[in-house]
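Reference record:
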Amino acid sequence: MKRFLLAFLTGLVLAGLLVVTIQKGTSTTKQGSKRGGKAVAVAVETAQLKIGSLVDEGRFSGSIEAASKFMVAPKISGRIKKLFVEIGDTIQNGATIATLDDEELLLAVKQANADLEIARANYNESASLLAISQRELDRVKTMRQQKVSSEVEVENAQAAYKTREARHQVNKALVTQKEAAFETSKLKLAYATVDASWSGGGGQRFVAERFQNAGAMIGANTPIVSVIDIATVTAVIDVVERDYFKIKQGLKAEIEPAAMPGEIYQATVSRITPMLDETSRQARIELELQNKNYSLKPGMFIKATIIYEVHNSTTIAPAGALVRRNEQEGLFLIDTEKSVANFVPVTTGFREGEFIEIASPSISGEVVTLGHHLLEDGAGIIINGKNLPGTSTEKGKGAEKKAGRKGGQQK
């Protein structure tokens, strides 16, 4: 029991000493903060605000497509008799690509021509018989007027004439039918020669792909080769909604092929899709550019830069100088007379790489680019390791005290 009481009293004494010690330390700390003097300066790096031009632009990736591409296919079925082109060949408008076996087609033309001749002969015969019937009818009518023939003979002559007339009309229709059949057979014979034809200007084009070989049996509309036009090519890019509304037809763009770094081609926005894809939330944009030396090929990967707008004679700051304080975006502008950095809220404009436009207010001078995360409005600063007038640091005070002690020892 005595031991327990002794331990209890000892604990109370120690607790009292601890409370006294904490209070003393707190008092000492408060006294030290009061004696602190000037605020601690912050080492920073700065950059000069400049006046210049900034470009609002968008950078995209995409690919090259041919301005025109189509498949060359026969309109009839048959066996390829001869193929005249290979991959990479240049062709002119109307060039012959292939010919099909045409023996049956030639026989069909001869048969259709013979049928047409028969129909024309029948038509000529019916025309002669109709003329005879007409003369016979006229003769009977004349005799009836002279009361030589009866009314029955006139009626019979009229019936015979109408029969001849109807037959003549049938033969005339048969001639038209056989003429159409003859022209059809000739057209099919012409289809045995497969040509590559296009509208919208002449110029040469290229055979991009070949799908069939000579001797192959193919059906109607089966592709033989594909033909492309690369004198003018299309750069296709996909843009997100943020950039979509900045792009207008006629805007200029620069195209750089990934396979040819440093080669820049000038292009123009030619077509803009009126919708965004629901899956990717992107829109297709087409840019047209000339390819006079045919160096750009469909399928090539490219980088595109579209210039939206240019601002000249504007205030430019490093983008790294921007900070946020109290929900405001701004810069720390250096006041060399007071040796402090003042926070200035700003409104930004274009951003180009590492630089940003200061739209408002109109300011000039130096701004803090490194170390601003330690700054508040009106804080003292150190630039390039040197104190500005009116600033101090704890390290400086310690050095002064140490120097004073050394001086006392020397004395």
